[in-house]
Design goal:
about 260 residues; Rossmann fold; 2 domains; 12 helices; 8 strands; binds NADP nicotinamide-adenine-dinucleotide phosphate
């Protein structure tokens, strides 16, 4: 038996595999992956030395825990043939917008975990929302969270908040990238080259996030430390206020959350 089977080893499947192998004590010979794309499978076998198959039924029978990382449109075709082999097994679904109740239509007796990671999972820094089916024990939850923390940080929520997670952190990397690009272009307007400005903007966002995490201070406290009376920063902040930064960000998250709800209906 394998400890973990991953069905669909595309972008997100590989990010999860990489995290598990580098940050947990699970070894390559305890993992099996499957994919319909034979070139993809060959690449994964060569890079990570895990077992592989093009047969999802075989994977489901041979795995204690199954991670499902195919596109949402493939849910039914992938799960219907293997649902019966997932009795009392943990099934972790990465599929955006697919509710636990929908998954249980095809895998009635599985212990379903629904997660919403984001693209920084590819560098081991996902912000992942997770919700659990009712039949999962506390001990199992702890084990699952350790697994999920191998490719980033995890926040447990009720399933009703998964759309909010999608609107905030699922789409969040695009918002942050838009901000970084804006900052870099602003630097160009002030005479810096784009490359210089991009490096400064990226490091500023990275360093600020790290400082926030390490000090655990409220953002307003750290903001006040860089904002001296009548100094440059308060002039800059005033312009952000005039441009309704907070209003715009709140609208963006609200709109993306609403869209996630529509798509999962
Ligand atoms: N990327 C993100 O930021 C992100 C964030 C949160 C959640 N997600 C979720 O993660 C899931 C995977 O996304 P992704 O970006 O990793 O997609 P992806 O790169 O397209 O990976 C999916 C893989 O599954 C394979 N596949 C298709 N049908 C299969 C089957 N019947 N059996 C086994 N493998 C099969 C695909 O092969 P083919 O190429 O041959 O079709 C592909 O290699 C999606 O459900 C998405 O909603 C993604």
């Amino acid at each position: 038996m394998f400890k973990i089977g991953i069905i669909g080893i595309g972008n997100m499947g590989e990010a999860i595999l990489k995290g598990i192998l580098s940050k947990t004590n699970i070894n390559p010979d305890e993992i099996i992956v499957s994919d319909t794309n034979s070139q993809r499978l060959e690449y994964i076998i060569n890079k990570y030395s895990v077992a592989a198959t093009d047969n999802n039924v075989r994977l489901a029978k041979l795995s204690n825990v199954v991670i499902l990382s195919v596109k949402p449109k493939d849910l039914e075709s992938v799960l219907s043939p293997i649902g019966v082999f997932l009795n009392q097994k943990i099934l972790i679904s990465v599929l955006a917008g697919i509710k636990i109740s929908k998954i249980k239509q095809f895998a009635e007796n599985a212990k379903v975990v629904r997660i919403m990671p984001n693209t920084p999972a590819m560098v081991g820094e996902s912000a992942t929302g997770v919700c659990f089916d009712g039949n999962i024990s506390g001990e199992e939850k702890q084990w699952i969270l350790k697994l999920l923390n191998s490719f980033g940080k995890t926040v447990v929520v009720e399933e009703s908040l998964m759309d909010a997670i999608t609107g905030l952190s699922g789409s969040g990397p695009a918002y942050v990238l838009a901000f970084i690009d804006s900052l870099a272009q602003a630097g160009v307007k002030q005479g810096l080259s784009y490359n210089q400005a991009l490096e400064l903007a990226t490091q500023t966002v990275f360093g600020t996030a790290k400082m926030l995490m390490e000090t655990k201070e409220h953002p307003a406290v750290l903001r006040d430390k860089v904002t001296s009376p009548a100094g440059t920063t308060i002039y800059g902040l005033h312009q952000l206020e005039k441009g309704k930064l907070k209003d715009t960000v709140m609208n963006a998250v609200e709109s993306a959350t609403q869209r996630s709800k529509e798509l999962s209906e």
